[in-house]
């Protein structure tokens, strides 16, 4: 049975490498509140604090990750993904049917398990790359510009959607299959487009 196969050290080393890369941000909340926004005793946003804001349409001030850190994680992911792509012919789990292994039932099952596992890792890495690349859209070249750009994008989103975003960790935002998380991502994308359109009309 494939489920009972002990995978190679190569696969577990890859898992450790990736986990060490993402552990720095994975469980952190992806978005941070604007200074002054507070929660009430029940964990809901205190609307009284929102009314004191200069821009009452925006309660999020940015990502809980710097541009330099985001670029570092993205570059690291690209290096790993490119390594797998360039060396897939020599890595049993990525070589597909071209890889030669001993033609016995046990070897075949081990090879299939390795393939399934490495394909899952590669799919995960590409999902992360796409997610982090999407978040990079929200960041600008310098901190002051980033804050202004982020605020102008969030202004097109409802306060409820912003509040819901504030509850998501990077892990949830990047890899969740939850339909509502997908809806929030689409809302951000629509807001980016609306912001670009509005900027073009000025």
Automatic annotation (TrEMBL):
What is the name of this protein? Unnamed protein product
> Which source organism?
Ambrosiozyma monospora
Its taxonomic placement starts with: Eukaryota, Fungi, Dikarya, Ascomycota, Saccharomycotina
